[in-house]
Amino acid sequence: MNLAPIGHLRGPFAEKFGTPRQPGLVPEVEAVVELLAPWNTGDAVRGLEGFSHVWLLFGFHLNDPVSPARSTVRPPRLGGNERLGVFATRSPYRPNPVGLSLVKVRQVLPDRLVVAGADLVDGTPVYDIKPWLPWADRPVQGEREGGGFAGAPPESQLEVIFAPGVEGHPLAPELKQILSFDPRPAYQRGDAGRLYGMAYAGHEIQWQVDDKKKQLQVVAIRNSIDKGPE
Q: Is the pTM of the predicted complex or chain greater than 0.70?
């Protein structure tokens, strides 16, 4: 099977580090699925405005080519200490690097789709869009539901505060949500004094974490173009 993108996602997350690990964790962050020809004339999305959510079938285009898929992986949800079968997880390293995310529809335009709550990196190739059906995509009433080791949604792990000079930045509300889930790999937690950084919405974000207080402080928000503080 040869897959060709029908579009690409354009969003604020420029790299894997810091991108939400699941869709819907940061529901207010918007992204745009830019459709490619011949799917960008309006015909392909006719009627889609009647749906509240859609499934995005996409490719993990930033996977490290020297890190192949394995039969077992270490889910971050379990602290990276326990191995589970790859088919029991949502690891991006899969036999075929294809992902599926449920996102909220904000606006339908002929050549693009504005969505919210995506867990995708900017530039992600999108292979298909399918409408979400509440009566088909939920278990039948009365049937057993089970989310395995991830049966409950993740809770915020860190209190996010801002250093003087950045507390009023326009990105602060979004960053407070994103960083509260602690994007660090499990093996880096407890590394006191370490300065972390991520690219987000054209800016470089830097922060430090006090694991004893369970507190994350954003110390700098710099424009990626001029590298100057804002």
A: yes
